Amino acid sequence: MTAIAFTQILLNGLALGAAYALIALGFVIVLNAAGAVNFAQGELVMAGGFVSIAVAPLIGEATALPGLLLLPLVMGLMGLMGAGFAWIAYFPVRKRHQVAVFVSTIAAGLVLQHLANALFGAAPRAGPPLISGNGLTVGALSISLQQIAVMVCAAVLISGTGLFLGRTQTGRQMRAVAQDPEMAAAIGIRPKRMITLSFALAIALAGAAGLLLSNQFFVSPNDGGLFMLKAYIAVTIGGWGRLDGAVIGALLIGIFETLVAALTSYLVAEALLYALLLIMLVFRPSGLLPERARARV
Amino acid sequence: MSDPRSRLALGVAAIALALYALFFAGDYALHVLTRAGIYAIAAIGYQLIFGRLGALSLAQGCFFGLGAYAAGLGALELGLGFPLTLAAGVLLPSLLAALIAIPVLRLASHYFALATLGIAQLALLVATNWTDVTGGANGLYGVPPIETGTLSFGHGLPLTLLVWACVGLALTVSHRMTAGQRGLKVETLREAPLAAAALGIDGSAIRFRFFVASAALGGLAGALQAHAVGVVSPDVLQFHVLVLILAMTVIGGRASPLGAVLGALLLVHLPEWFRDFADYYLVVYGAALLAAIIFLPRGLAGLFGKSEMPPVETADAEAPRDPAPHTLSVETVSKRFGGVTALDSVSLTLAPGEILGLIGPNGSGKTTLVNLLSGIDKPDGGRILLGDADITGKPPEYIARSGLCRSFQHPQIAPDLTVLESVEAVTAEGESAAARVTEAGLSDRANENAGTLPPAALKHLEIARALAAGASVLALDEPAAGMNEVERANLAALLKRLADAGHGILLIDHAMDFLLPLADRVICLSAGRVVAEGTPADVARDPAAINAYFGESPL
Amino acid sequence: MFLKSAAVALTALLATSLTAKAETIPVLVPITGFLSLEGTSQRNGAVLAIERYGKDLGLDAEVTDTGTSPEGAVTALRRALEDKPSAAVASMLGTQMLAMLPIAGRAGVPLLTVSGTAKITEIGIPWVFRFFPGDSVVKVAQARYAIEELGAKRPALLHQTTAYGQSGAEHLRRIMRELGAPLVFEEAIDISVKDMLPALTRMQEAKPDLILLHLHSGSTALVIRQARDQNIALPILAGSAMHQPTTAALLEPKQLAGVCAESASSPISEPEGQVEDFTAEYRARFGTEPDAFALAQYDGVSMLIAAKNAGARTAAEVRDWLASNSYDGLAMTYKSDGKGNMAHDAVVVCYDGKSAVPVIKRRYENVSGVK
Question: Could C163 and B136 be called an inter-chain contact, meaning their C-beta atoms sit closer than 8 Å?
Answer without folding.
Answer: yes
